[in-house]
Amino acid sequence: MTLELKGVSKQVEGQTHIHPTDLTLEQGTMNVLLGPTTAGKTSLMRLMAGLDAPATGQILWQGQDVTGQRVQDRKVAMVYQQFINYPSMSVYDNIASPIRLMGVDKAEIDRRVRETAELMQLTPMLERKPLELSGGQQQRCALARALVKNAGLVLLDEPLANLDYKLREELRVEIPKIFEASGAIFVYATTEPEEALLLGGKTATLWEGRVTQFGPTPEVYRQPVDATTARVFSDPPMNFLQISKTGGRILFGEGQSAEATGKLAELPDGRYMAGFRPNHLEIGKHAGDAMAFQATLHVTELTGSETFVHLDHDGERWVGLVHGVHDLQPGEELTVWLEPRHVYIFSEEGRLVAPAAYALAA
Amino acid sequence: MAKITLDNLAHSYLPNPGSEADFALKELNHDWDDGAAYALLGASGCGKSTLLNIISGLLQPSQGRVLFDGQDVTNAPTAERNIAQVFQFPVVYDTMTVRDNLAFPLRNRGRDEKYVAERVQEIARMIGMEEMLNRKARGLTADAKQKISLGRGMVRKDVNALLFDEPLTVIDPHMKWELRTQLKKLHHDFGHTMIYVTHDQTEALTFADKVVVMYDGRVVQIGTPEELFERPEHTFVGYFIGSPGMNVIPARIEGNRAYIDGSHVELSQGFGALEGKVEIGVRPEFVKLSQSEGLPVRVRRVEDVGRHKIIRAEFFGNDINIIADEDEEVSADMNRVTFDRDHVNVYANDWRVQGEAA
């Protein structure tokens, strides 16, 4: 079972919402669509579901062209940010309703409702009304209604966005388990990099209507193909600075440089852009080959075990996430450290030319 | 700016509350220091919005008093409390320009136009909207509208307090960073008394000098982010703060040892006899996997979440989470676990017990 998008695009009133996109989703995979609001996540899902017809391209389901086929005629389930349950029906009837509409016989309905309820840990609540459940249970009921159809394609559009932080954390652990048990193709849209990493599977990063990269989630995170992908897949955002290569060395400014080893050695001399993640910036302690940079502290935020330092480095905004609690004053001049192995090198146009050495090892 | 005192405050939505369970907000005495930034943190239904509504005057408490700088305002309407509020969803006048939206609270108080113009310019710079001052609010993104709401909340210098109710819910993660840092900077520059309600621990911890953690209508701990992380006073605080939260494991305490199923871990303090449900609490950050040292553990799965790994394991029949660095190797023969003894807390009936130096 596969879902194939071939050159699929979408236009609304002359504006391009989705640029021509090729994407193949395999059976039994969790596929995360990661990108900010308006990147095109929902548009892409609606095309996959058949809720909207593409302007160009083809959608193939198990090799069959289903472009333009109505959503009712396809085995697709969708769960939205706002969980939708019928308030006057019991949890049992809510879960049963999609397959009752499909005309499944009574005994089979009962079997499937109970099986799905068990999977979603809703068995003790089958006789209750949705409003008597907690927020997390209500969303599990909505998920159960999607799963009971045995749909081959399950689309989840930011399904946890309206839930409390802690509930979200618990469901993020549960959803991959449910998905593994169902064997369907799951597509999960989110704006949060952390959520993509917790869900695992594969991730497609989206930016302004384009899929910038698609691959195993940790690989997209550690080896982004361009600066846009790195930016989308980094929270807090990735830090950047202008650098240049001369002879065998990479010059970072302020007299800091590193040896151009491995892939870097082959790069032509010239100007490049370096990128690094906030958690790789250090203050105080540092490794032997770390480079020092001077920065002005804008503001600090404490999490209890870590400190976010918002910095101004030569007109660039940097964020560092460092271990421990550091009591620093805004306006303070700081020395921050960065190891060469944590640095990604991008061309001036933003294409990745050398991944960080640590990412290749991980 | 003002100090806000809550004196014997409690609230029930029932007309004749009987037992404590009838109270959505259980009895509370607290001073909110003048010029400090507080966060009210808890899950849905914990009473945090009830408390905020009492402070803002939207709700009359069933018992107790609210004082602003010693003056009783319990029965004063919101309009007389001289506070600014920012809500979850943007409240802007669509037909007005950004400038007029920001100027509104000042003009409403009859401030002269010269002052209004200066102040609006200053706030616009802070929220990064100087370029948009002459645009109508209609058609702006949710982010931009919420920035206007924040700016309008901040425009008056003479308010007693600024109250925020989940102000960043509708904002994209990247923009959240920017707005949060701006709020933090504004607090540093102006020293308003700020109360910020949220269910998001990151927002609460990074925004506030002190976080007020609420659970089931009760304030269970008021502390700095560091205190909440290092010494959760209640198992709920341990669970609610941290991702994943603190590991809580049933144990029997004897002196400076905690016994789990006949095996033991050392504690940095000694304890007398403890009554009721006794547990130890240790955060995933202070648990370490090992090949040779410590007590047996069975690793179920390792999650690569980018900057660190979360190891989900089983420890004497209990779930346990362990956090390892991004660089740390996790191999199949790692089936033992050690605890950082200075970071093992002891709980009796969910409340932290202070030990004596061992």
What does this structure look like?
The complex is a heterodimer of chains A (362) and B (358). Chain A has helices at residues 41-49, 91-101, 106-119, 135-147, 165-182, 193-199, 217-222, 227-232, 357-361, and strands at 2-12, 15-26, 30-34, 56-61, 64-65, 76-79, 153-157, 185-190, 202-207, 210-216, 239-246, 249-253, 256-259, 270-276, 281-283, 291-302, 306-313, 316-323, 333-338, 344-346, 352-354. Chain A is of the alpha+beta class and 362 residues long. Chain A has 2 domains: 2-232, 3-Layer(aba) Sandwich (Rossmann fold), CATH 3.40.50; 239-361, Nucleic acid-binding proteins (OB fold (Dihydrolipoamide Acetyltransferase, E2P), Beta Barrel). In chain A, α2 (91-101) packs across α3 (106-119) and α2 (91-101) runs parallel beside α4. Chain A starts with a strand and ends with a helix. The mean pLDDT of chain A is 89. Chain B is of the alpha+beta class and 358 residues long. Chain B folds into 2 domains: 4-240, 3-Layer(aba) Sandwich (Rossmann fold); 247-357, OB fold (Dihydrolipoamide Acetyltransferase, E2P). Chain B is 23% helix and 35% strand. The radius of gyration of chain B is 24 Å and the shape is globular. Chain A binds chain B through residues 36-37, 135, 164-167, 169, 173, 191-194, 197-198, 200, 218, 221, 235-237, 277, 279, 298-299, 301-305, 308, 310, 319, 321, 325, 330, 358, 362, and chain B through 43-44, 172-174, 177, 180-181, 184-185, 188, 199-202, 205-207, 224-226, 228-230, 239-245, 283, 285, 303-307, 312, 326-327.
